[in-house]
Write a structure and sequence with these properties.
It is a single chain. The chain contains 19 helices and 16 strands. With about 425 residues, the protein is α/β, with parallel strands linked by helices. A six-stranded mixed sheet has the order 2-1-3-14-6-15, with helices on both faces. Strands 8-11-7-12 form a four-stranded mixed sheet. It starts with 7 loop residues before the first helix and ends with a helix.
């Protein structure tokens, strides 16, 4: 999930104030006749998303005078460092917005409440099991617990220049009949002409995108045997890596100028027709919808498929601090905040996919406008990302996988050399995290 925010500086001050003023962990029980007070740490950052979050908090507070929720603005940029400090000091907010990869460590350290016996039946049944799998972790004592409610997910799609797509004569893929990777490569070659390219792969941050798409061919990158997790880069893991590399250096259908760029950086060149296809997370549609020049036509296409259309998923989540004095009230607020109608509002605000089946059926989630129909349909292909359960993944990603994949996609090392680095250097990292 994207971890970007223009609110980082303000968030530090806000969270510091929340820390000093007492969070969920240190609040005394409310005096008689006084409302229960709950702090809700939100990491919403886009304008529409922040507005939706605050609107729902206001609705709750008006309808529940005895349980009052305080909205606390946080930032993806520093939330986990802030939470480590707050958990240690007993000042964590009652309700915590985060993403599922962060939950494992906090759960095993005993900082998050196991929600499996607190989830209302309606909320539990509305969210499919694959989404619950993204928030189910070992508690550090060998027991599995549910440490958050998953509510927003991201899938990979292709944003296409409609004029160039139509002119190419390539079959237009649909949610029910996506391109195979071979068809995708052929389409990109057809669109490469006159100094312009078929596709652009921004690979400044290559790991999540390539690992999630690797599931198209069953590539997991990790394997566990006898309780020990190691890195695996076999034929399945190499498929997507090799195919992207081939577009860059064999077919020469991928724009090399995009390689060192972040996800949104190639958009100005996209609008100018420098390339036709931009694989990206579903949320990038927002910037295209808001920033594309007048008259620029674009469409959302499903990601290509390999032996399957599966993609790895992580979830944005709401958790409850273990030390919260008001866990039952916090759960009531979460159940309201994440009901079907409200998840649809949150998904629209963040341009992501709701986990709620009721929300996914909302007309706002299935309209053709801005590709919502294709984006929402892609949710059916999401399965728990294999790396989600791997202790040490963040360090492997930062210190090993990111620089190695950047070198590979820059054609500085071979795929065999990349595989060796990912496995050998990666296993040294994971070794330190084995229990």
């Amino acid at each position: 999930m994207r971890i970007t925010s223009a609110l980082a500086a303000a968030a530090i001050l806000t969270l510091a104030a929340a820390c000093g003023g007492g969070g969920g962990g240190t609040q005394p029980s409310s005096a008689p006749n006084e409302p229960v007070k709950i702090n809700f740490l939100s990491l919403a950052w886009q304008k529409e998303s922040v507005a939706a979050n605050k609107q729902l908090v206001d609705e709750w507070n008006k309808a529940n005078p005895n349980i009052q929720v305080t909205y606390v603005q946080g930032s993806w940029d520093n939330v986990n460092d802030q939470l480590v400090t707050q958990f240690a000091g007993g000042t964590a907010p009652d309700v915590i917005h985060n993403d599922s990869p962060a939950l494992s460590g906090f759960a095993s350290d005993g900082y998050l409440l196991d929600l499996k016996d607190k989830l209302p039946a309606e909320l539990k049944s509305d969210i499919p099991q694959p989404a619950w799998d993204t928030v189910t972790f070992d508690d550090g004592k060998g027991q599995q617990g549910v440490y958050g409610v998953p509510f927003l997910q991201e899938s990979q799609v292709i944003i296409a220049n409609k004029k160039l797509l139509d002119a190419s004569g390539a079959r237009v893929p649909t949610a029910d009949n996506p391109w195979t990777w071979d068809e995708f490569s052929e389409a990109a070659k057809k669109m490469t002409k006159g100094g312009n390219f078929g596709v652009a792969w921004p690979m400044k941050s290559p790991v999540n995108k390539t690992l999630n798409l690797a599931l198209n061919f069953g590539g997991t990158f990790f394997q566990t045997a006898d309780g020990k997790t190691t890195v695996k880069v076999g034929p399945e893991e190499r498929e997507v890596l090799q195919r992207i590399h081939d577009q860059l250096y064999k077919d020469k259908s991928a724009d090399p100028a995009a390689l060192g760029q972040g996800t949104a950086d190639p958009l100005p060149a996209f609008y100018k027709g420098k390339f036709a296809l931009l694989p990206a997370g579903v949320y990038l549609r927002q910037q295209v919808a808001e920033q594309a020049p007048q008259g620029f036509e674009w469409v959302t296409l499903p990601a290509p498929k390999g032996t399957s259309a599966q993609q790895g998923a992580v979830s944005q989540t709401l958790s409850i601090a273990q030390d919260s004095k008001h866990a039952d009230e916090a759960m009531k607020f979460i159940a309201f905040f994440l009901n079907g109608a409200n998840q649809a509002k949150l998904a629209k605000g963040d341009w992501l996919l709701p986990t709620s089946q009721a929300a996914a059926a909302d007309p706002a989630m299935t309209t053709k406008e801005n590709g919502w129909d294709v984006a929402t349909a892609s949710a059916k292909n999401l399965v728990v990302a294999p790396f989600l359960k791997v202790n040490g993944f963040d360090e492997w990603k930062t210190k090993v996988a990111t620089p190695t994949l950047q070198e590979y996609f820059a054609n500085k090392i071979t795929i065999d050399q990349a595989a060796s680095k990912l496995v050998e250097d990666g296993n040294k990292v994971l070794e330190r995290y084995q229990r």
